Amino acid sequence: MAESDNKSANLLAQETAQLEEQLQGWREVILAGDRVLRWEKPWFPGALVGVTTVVFLLIYYLDPSVLTGLSCAVMLLCLADYFVPTVALKVFGSNKWTTEQQQRFHEICNNLVRSEHRVVGWWKRLCALKEEKPKVYFASVISGLLAVAWIGQQVHNLFLTYLIVSFLQLLPGLNQHGFISKYTAMAKREINKLLKQKEKKNQ
């Protein structure tokens, strides 16, 4: 068990170091984005929602086709990948990089690697469920897809995407300021109350 934990820790450290090397040119931009996503200033959440709203209103107004939208998105990513490292180096400069910034950059990369491992773990568990309990897998997947299809039919695609993107952008700040843990604990308490009431009725 200890040997397995050591291997996992070594693999995590190795992948984190590789990711840090790959994102070296983006580190200043990543730290700036991290500060915004964690709401270091009180007006950051409003700015996030405002920028997202403007972008989605622009998409709604232009109404591009799927192919045009994908092409523009990939083009912007390519331009950012080419220009951002160069511009960031000139704007921020490599001599201003501090130990605290490096530590935070390491934490961000470590969290990204851990998130990737969680997604892979969920996928492996889903595949294991398919092999061990195919009926449960089939029922769960079909029910989930039907629910998603129904939601997509009730809500406009662009508006639904806007809600999802806005929530994902606000999620780090909500978690950082304790909103997620607070309301999760409240939900757990209410569920426990309902379960206890149900047990009393059954008795």
UniProtKB/TrEMBL annotation:
Protein name listed in UniProt: ADP-ribosylation factor-like 6 interacting protein 1
Organism of derivation: Poecilia latipinna (sailfin molly)
Keywords: Membrane, Transmembrane, Transmembrane helix
Entry's Gene Ontology cellular component terms: Sec61 translocon complex
GO BP annotations listed: cotranslational protein targeting to membrane; neural crest cell migration; retina morphogenesis in camera-type eye
RETREG1-3/ARL6IP-like N-terminal reticulon-homology domain: residues covered: 27-184
Topology with respect to the bilayer: Multi-pass membrane protein
Location of the protein in the cell: Membrane
Parts of the chain that traverse the membrane: 43-62, 68-92, 136-153, 159-180
InterPro entries noted in UniProt: ER_autophagy_membrane_reg, RETREG1-3-like_RHD
